């Protein structure tokens, strides 16, 4: 089974191509621009209901901003595959809606992590005047960029913000999808910790729509729990001290633009070192099936709004 072992970026691209080839008229595989520092193309699977029109509901799901979080690339690929299959077998699902899934936003980092340094987090940018490579792709976004919550201007830091906001090709490529106004719901998939985090990330101040944000977040939490009984923590900001605040993250940009932008931290709940980021491969498939239910809960939230 594809989801029984870790897969390379090339394996994932082949899988995504096969998925859309088997679903003509349901989904397309798009190449985002620009390409990465090492020339790789970031791919998006777009599922658009025939009744969708500009202004109708859009959900964007992305994964693998951080290279070492391999399980996120597996979950993103699974979501693309199973959402396409569901739309194909049940055309009434996602009526009037669009769903864009970007399973691997940081392919250079994923390849480097899988071949050279498993604990690599950032992209593979060459930093001017430094021998340290990489920018943290979850600190490079314009909302509160370089704002000081878990950020660094040291090029050697794991949380290096980059020379300017959106300096990185990967930020620009996903940013183009987030800027296709309007995005209504956005989910950025990471690991680890088993948490759902609503906006904001850079501050514990409440978003004006906190009640709705919490309702959607706890709906995702219940959906995950319904699969295998697993309880993800739900919170906003630093989740009551369970995590930390972070400036310049992707979901805060989507939220700033009018969406509700969430972060999910996949399994395991707790671990030490590389066992957290690359758990037993038996963890992959349960995480995939759980997050698929969370995405269905996001879709369901729109249906209830009608
Ligand atoms: O630090 C990050 O970018 C995320 N954690 S990770 O271990 N995957 O690197 C958390 C960012 C979101 N943080 C909050 N919403 N507080
Ligand atoms: Zn991460």
UniProtKB/TrEMBL annotation:
Residues 5-302 form the Peptidase M14 domain. The keyword Metal-binding applies. Keywords: Hydrolase, Metal-binding, Metalloprotease, Protease, Signal, Zinc. Its cofactor is Zn(2+). The active site is at residue 265. Belongs to the peptidase M14 family. This is Peptidase M14 domain-containing protein. It comes from Prorocentrum cordatum. The chain holds residues 132 to 437 of 506 of the full protein.
């Amino acid at each position: 089974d594809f989801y029984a072992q870790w897969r390379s970026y090339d394996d994932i691209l082949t899988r995504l191509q096969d998925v859309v080839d088997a679903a003509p008229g349901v989904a397309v595989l798009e190449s985002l621009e620009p390409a990465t520092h090492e020339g790789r193309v970031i791919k998006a699977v777009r599922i658009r209901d025939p009744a969708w029109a500009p202004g109708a509901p859009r959900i964007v799901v992305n994964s693998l901003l951080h290279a070492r979080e391999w399980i996120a690339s597996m979950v993103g690929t699974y979501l693309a595959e199973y959402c396409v299959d569901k739309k194909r077998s049940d055309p009434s699902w996602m009526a009037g809606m669009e769903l864009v899934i970007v399973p691997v936003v940081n392919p250079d980092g994923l390849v480097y992590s899988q071949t050279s340094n498993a604990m690599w987090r950032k992209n593979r940018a060459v930093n001017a005047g430094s021998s340290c490579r990489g920018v943290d792709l979850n600190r490079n976004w314009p909302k509160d960029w370089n704002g000081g919550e878990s950020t660094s201007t040291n090029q050697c830091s794991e949380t290096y913000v980059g020379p300017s906001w959106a300096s990185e090709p990967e930020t620009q490529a996903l940013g183009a999808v987030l800027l296709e106004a309007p995005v209504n719901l956005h989910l950025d998939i990471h690991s680890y910790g088993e948490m759902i985090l609503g906006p904001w990330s850079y501050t514990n101040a409440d978003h004006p729509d906190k009640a709705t944000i919490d309702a959607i977040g706890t709906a995702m939490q219940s959906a995950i729990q319904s699969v295998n009984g697993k309880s993800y923590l739900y919170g906003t900001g630093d989740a009551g001290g369970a995590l930390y605040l972070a400036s310049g993250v992707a979901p805060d940009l989507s939220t700033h633009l009018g969406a509700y932008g969430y972060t999910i931290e996949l399994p395991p709940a707790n671990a030490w070192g590389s066992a957290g980021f690359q758990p037993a491969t038996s963890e992959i498939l349960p995480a995939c099936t759980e997050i698929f239910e969370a995405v269905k809960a996001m879709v369901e939230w729109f249906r209830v709004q009608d």
